Amino acid sequence: MFTFKTFILFFATAIAEIIGCYLPYLWLNENKSIYLLIPAALSLILFSWLLTLHPTDAGRIYAAYGGVYVCTAILWMWLIENIKPTSWDIAGGFIVLIGVSVILYGSQH
Questions:
Q1: Along the chain (109 residues), what's the average pLDDT of each consecutive run of 10 residues?
Q2: How far apart are alpha carbons 63 and 65 in whole angstroms?
Q3: Residue 76's pLDDT is what?
Q4: If 0-12 CB within 10 Å is exposed, 13-18 middle and 19+ buried, where does residue 61 land?
């Protein structure tokens, strides 16, 4: 069952994945320190471990997680990169969350 706890776990997993990918981006594209690869690797290890804690079939979890990831990435873009989401970004995020709901709700029947 999809609960608030599951959503928080999805969100934490998405944050770990985004950090794990964003730090190498900073190194490669923004000329930041190569030492950013260390926390990036640790974050991706955390991401992998968090995926194992999700409560149902792996394929279904990955599909539903993908939707939460999209919305988390939009928030990241806004809050960390200071790029305001467009109305299309927001609409797309809602559409993806509807898809997540269909996948998770449908799996209960």
A1: 79 96 97 97 96 80 88 96 97 94 77
A2: 5
A3: 96
A4: buried
Rounded Cα gap, residues 90 and 35, in angstroms: 34
CA distances from 71 to 50, 89, 99, 105 (A): 18, 9, 12, 19
d(CA 56, CA 23): 30
10: exposed, middle or buried (Cβ count in 10 Å: 0-12, 13-18, 19+): buried
Within 10 A of 71 (CB to CB), how many other CB atoms are there?
Answer: 20
pLDDT at residue 2 in the model: 58
Residue 79 to residues 46, 62, 89, 105: CA-CA distances in angstroms? 22, 25, 14, 30
Q: Cβ-count burial of 91 within 10 angstroms (0-12 exposed, 13-18 middle, 19+ buried)?
A: exposed
pTM: 0.86
Residue with tokens 């995926």: 51
